[in-house]
Specification:
single chain; 240 residues; alpha/beta; Spore Coat Polysaccharide Biosynthesis Protein SpsA, Chain A; 6-stranded mixed β-sheet; two-stranded antiparallel ribbon
Length: 240
C-alpha cells in the first residue's frame, strides 16, 4: 500500500490557522491534497490532524481523514516523524502493509502533480530508500559570515575566504516540500539526510518556507506571478 500523509495540526502560532488560511482563493492545504490526488501515485491521500475544521476542509478537497491525531502528537513540541509513523502503524493495525509513505507538508501551494510524478519516477529508477526536494543555496554557505561580540565580522570557515565560489562544492538545503519514503526503512529511524536519500532539485522560484506573515505575502505574490493570475482579493495577509 502506498500512502501520502499530509500532517496538519491546528495550532499554528506565527500565522494563525495557516494550514487552512486562504491562499490566492483556496485553503493552503487544498494545493497539496489536489496535487497528490491528481498524481495518481497513492492508494490513499490522508490528512493527519487533531482539528475538526481542518478535517472538514481536507474531506471537502478529497483527502481521507481516517483517524484523529492523538493529542500527544499535536502539541507545539511534537515532531513530524512520530506523526508519520503513527499513520503507517494505524494502517498496519487495520491489516494493511504499507510499503511506501510520502509526506507532503500542508502550506505547500507550489507543489504540483507533474512535479510529484517526475520525482517519483526518478526515485523508482534509482532505488534509494528516500527522495526529497532540495534547492541550491543562492550563495556559497562555505563563505558565510557572522558578527562577533565586538561588532566586527568574521568567517565561519576562514579556510575558504580566498577560494573562488565556482571552485566550491555546490550546496543545497531541504526544501520541505515532499518526502518519498520506504515505509519500513522510515520506521527504523534511518536518517533521511544521509546516503540512503536521493535529492530531487527544485527551481528556486517554487521553494518557499512560509513561516511568517511576510513569507506568506511574498509567496502569494510569487504564486500569482508564476501562474499569471491576479492576487486574490481575500487572501492578503494584511486583511487579518
Amino acid at each position: 500500500m502506498k500512502i501520502c500523509v499530509i500532517p496538519a495540526r491546528g495550532g499554528s502560532k506565527r500565522i494563525p490557522r495557516k494550514n487552512i488560511k486562504d491562499f490566492n482563493g483556496k485553503p493552503a492545504i487544498a494545493y497539496p491534497i489536489q496535487a497528490a490526488l491528481d498524481s495518481e501515485l497513492f492508494d490513499t491521500v490522508l490528512v493527519s490532524t487533531d482539528d475538526e475544521e481542518i478535517m472538514q476542509i481536507a474531506k471537502q478537497y478529497g483527502a481521507q481523514v481516517p483517524f484523529v491525531r492523538p493529542e500527544h502528537l499535536a502539541n507545539d513540541t511534537a515532531a513530524t516523524a512520530p506523526v508519520l509513523i503513527h499513520a503507517i502503524e494505524w494502517f498496519e493495525a487495520q491489516g494493511e502493509t504499507v510499503t511506501e509513505m510520502t509526506c507532503i507538508y500542508p502550506a505547500n501551494p507550489f507543489i504540483s502533480s507533474a512535479l510529484l510524478q517526475e520525482a517519483y519516477q526518478n526515485w523508482n529508477q534509482e532505488k534509494f530508500a528516500y527522495c526529497f526536494g532540495v534547492c541550491e543555496f543562492e550563495s556559497a554557505p562555505q563563505r558565510a559570515l557572522f558578527q562577533e561580540s565586538t561588532g566586527g565580522v568574521n568567517a565561519f570557515q576562514p579556510e575558504y575566504t580566498l577560494t573562488r565560489t565556482q571552485d566550491l562544492v555546490p550546496a543545497f538545503y531541504d526544501a520541505g516540500m515532499f518526502y518519498f519514503c520506504d515505509a519500513q526503512v522510515y520506521k527504523t529511524g534511518e536518517s533521511m539526510h544521509g546516503p540512503k536519500a536521493q535529492p530531487y532539485y527544485l527551481p528556486r522560484h517554487i521553494v518557499h518556507d512560509i513561516d511568517t506573515p511576510a513569507d506568506w505575502d511574498f509567496a502569494q505574490k510569487m504564486y500569482a506571478l508564476v501562474h499569471q493570475m491576479p492576487l486574490h482579493p481575500e487572501s492578503s495577509i494584511k486583511k487579518d
